[in-house]
Amino acid sequence: MTDVYILATTMKVLSHVMRNINEFNIPAGNSNGYEILYFGVNLILMFDYRLSFDIQVKNGNNEIEVLIISRKQIPAWKSDASSNEDMKPYYSNRGIRVNDVFKPLISDAYAFILSNRSASIADYSKTKSVEVTLIHTWQQEIKESQLKDRKNDLKR
Fold it and tell me: Quick check: 55 pLDDT over 80?
């Protein structure tokens, strides 16, 4: 006689949220006027990933540029403005206030850039104070047994 065991595994979807509120003073100038924040997205593990952001320049009417590019492109982006024309950003926008959502189509190591680089000479002399709110959200599947193991660990 053969015993047959059937294991039923229940999957749950947990949502994850990470929120950052920062204020950056981004220096003026073509070579160093930027702030870079790195983040990674693995769409196999992180379902329905979204990066929501609200960026606002606090001092004046000069715009800030918001870019999202691959982390691999950072050296080229830093090195020379002429090579940037060939670069294809995942996201690009400019304004005094930028409130938007980025939904990546591929897994990658991303760079979120706030840039004070500008074609306007008047902007070069002014440091920008920028308020930044970033919200990363995604869903992740886990097995019911992982939840039970975690509950037991918390009781100890």
Answer: yes
